[in-house]
Amino acid sequence: MKTMKLILPTVIAAICLMTACSQPVAKDKKTLTVAMELAYPPFETKDDSGNPTGISVDLAKAFGEYAGYDIQIENVSWDGLIPSLQTGKADMVISSMTITEDRLQSVDFSDPYANSCLAILANKDSGIESAEDLNQPGKKIAVKTGSTGYLYATEHLTNGEIIALADESACVTEVSQNKADGFLYDQLTIYRNWKEHEDTTTAVFIPFQDPEQWGIAVKKGNTELLEELNAFLDEYQAQGGFDALTEKYMSEEKAVFDQWGFTWFFDLEQ
Known about the structure:
- This protein is an alpha/beta fold.
- The protein has 10 helices and 14 strands.
- The protein has helices at 2-22, 55-67, 81-86, 131-134, 148-156, 168-176, 187-196, 223-238, 241-249, 251-260, and strands at 30-36, 45-46, 52-53, 69-75, 92-93, 107-109, 114-116, 118-123, 140-144, 161-165, 182-186, 201-204, 212-214, 217-219.
- Helix 5 links the parallel strand 9 and strand 10 (161-165).
């Protein structure tokens, strides 16, 4: 009887081991680090508890669910986003980043997922009614360093004085306090800041360039991740994902853009 007591646990253990070996082993999810500057609501920002939130955060998480990745969001300053890919500190950048020829020298981009046009937040007393009005001696142009507004101003508005600042709020303050004549940035940001400072500013929405297109950036040569991203973006668009993001975060702005005949962020076919 003692012999049976000793043998039985051994047999049971062996059976359990064989059974375990015959079952598929769950594969650990790979964690993808997604860098974004959490300073651009409603695309990249923080909630009241300091957690990442916004359109780009939802987009990153949706990709993680689609491709089977755990997603980790890292808040990175704008000028550190591309270096974070180059040094391997991040796998992707989703931060309302425009696809430009200059940036394509350093990183690869997904297919475009959004477009955006520049506009001007002008001081009410500046007399600015177009981009060319800023291209005059004595005019002060606030721009966020490294943004496409900055690139446009340094290329096309060279007769004015360019004031390059680190963040959007500082540029808005310069215009609101009449320290700058205009702030060059995307239409949505200009609209939102104009509505918050209607007593001191006006918005200039006259088109003066073709729409910019945003993409998701990855390290140069990471074709595997790029192919996954492009397949995801196609499906996400087809399933109405961007329509849901618009309804969740920007329904009021979408109605205004439609009323004014502006190209919407996610209407890539226009």
